[in-house]
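quick one, 531 residues, struct below
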Amino acid sequence: MKLMFIGAAHEVTGSCHYLEVGGKHILVDYGMEQGVNVFENVPLPVDEALIDYVFLTHAHVDHSGMLPLLYARGFRGQIYMTDASADLCSIMLRDCAHIQMMESEWRNRKAKRSEHVAKQEPLYTMEDAEGVIKRIVPCHYNREIQVCDGVKIRFTDIGHLLGSSSIEVWLTEDGRTKKIVFSGDIGNKNQPLLRDPSPTAQADYVVMESTYGDRLHTAERIDYVKELAAILKETFDRGGNVVIPSFAVGRTQEMLYFLRQVKVDRLVEGHEDFPVYVDSPMAVEATEIFQENRMECFDEEAMALVREGINPIAFSGLKLAITSEESKEINFNETPKVIISASGMCEAGRIRHHLKHNLWREECTILFVGYQAVGTLGRSIVEGAEEVRLFGEPIRVRAQIRQLAGLSGHADKNGLIEWIEAFEEKPKKVFVVHGEDSVCTSFAECLKIEHGQRAYAPYSGTEFDLLSNQFLYEAEPVPVQKKTKPASGVFARLVAAGQRLMALIQKSDGMANKDMAKFADQINSLCDKWE
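---
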C-alpha cells in the first residue's frame, strides 16, 4: 500500500498523486503545470495504460488538464468526480484540447519561415478529450462509493469551486485498512455563491494544499461591491473600459454576482446602465452549469435569491460574446464597459486581444481578481512591467493596474489550519503540497512546531508505505534544466497503443488458456501484417 508524490510538490500547479493498493494503480488528480516549472516531476511509476482509476478533486486545469494525455497514452480506466465537476470537465477538457490544437497550428505556421524547425503536434487532441470525458463517473457529495475490492471513496464539499471536494479514500490490503484524505484546494470562507468548506472528522493520513500557507486574508470583510463600484466609476468617468482577466470557471461567476448587486443598487452614478461583456464561450457554458447545480452547491445567501425567482448571476446589460466576430466587435464600441475574459493569468485566450486594445490606453483599467502565478503575463503586469509582448508586438502598459485585494477562492493560512485542526485525532502524517517551494516548507514547519502535527513537505518522487507508516524513499529537489513538453504526435500515439496492449497482456494472467492462445494468435497475426 503505497503513496507517491508526482506533481504539485513544492509547486503550486500540476497536481498529481499516485496510490498503489492490492495491485490497483490510482491517480488523485492529473493536472497541467502553469507558469514557471521550478522542479522536475518524476514520471508516473507505471505506464498510463495500467492506471485503473483517477479520483479528481475539482475541475481546474492544474488538477484535471492532463487527463486527455492520459487517455492518449492508453488509459481506459474510470475517473471519479462530483456531479458538478463532471459537468465542468466536459467543457474545460474540450477547451484545453482546442487550445493545444490552436497553439500547435500557430507554431507550425510560424515555423514555415524556417526549414530547420520540425513540425509540432498538439499535446493531445479533441478526440482524446472526448475519449476521456466518456470515462467520467459522476458522484454525489457525502456518499460512500465502493470503487472496487479494497478501495472506497467519499467526496466532501470543500468550497473552492463549483463541485470541488476533498476526497476520503479507504484502502484495504492484507486485511488492514488505512484512510487517507486528499484536501484538494480548500476554499475561502464567506465567499459569494459557494458554501464554506466542510471539515472531515478522521484520517490516518492527510495530503493537504498550502497555496496561501504563508499569508492571511484581511481581517475585515471587504465590501467588494462598493470597491468594485468605485473602480468602475473612476474608469467610466475617464471614458475608459474596465478589463477583467478572469478564470472562466468560478471567478467569472463571482464577478457577475457582484456586478448584479452594483447594477441593482445603481452604485455607478452617471453610468448606471453600463454594459458588461462576458467574452469567453467556456465562461458562458460554465455560468449555465452553475445555474444547473445551484441546489447542491450554492450557499444560503445565493439560495435566498433563487427562492425569490432571481438569478444571482444575471442582470440587464449583460452581453455574452460567443463567436470571434462578437468578440472583435467589443473593442470597436466606444461606450465605457466592463469586459470579462479568460484566461485569468493572461496566458491564452481572448483576454490577450483585449489587453492589446486596452493596455496602452491611460483611461482604461485592468482589474485583476485572481492569483497570478510566477512566470505568467498577468504576474508581470501586476508587478509593474512597463511593456509586454502580445502577438509578437511590444505593448506599453499605460492603463491603471488594479487588484481586488483579498478576493480568493483559496483559504488563507488560518483557514488551512482550521481545516486540519478539525480532525478529531491528529493524523499519523500530514503531507503538505500544492504551494510554492518556501511556502510548503514554512507551512509544514508551522504545523509541526505550533500545532503538533506530524507534517512533512515531500518533493516529487517521494514514496511512503501507508501500512508501515514509513518512507520508502525521500526525494531531493531536482531543478528544471529546460522547459520541455511530453512527447506527442503520431509516433507517441503508436507507443501509447503498444503500452495499452502490454497492459492488457499483464492483466490477462489467469485468463482461460483457450482465450490466451487466441489473444496471442491475434497479436502475432497483427505483427506479421506490419513486419
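The two ends are 41 Å apart (CA to CA).
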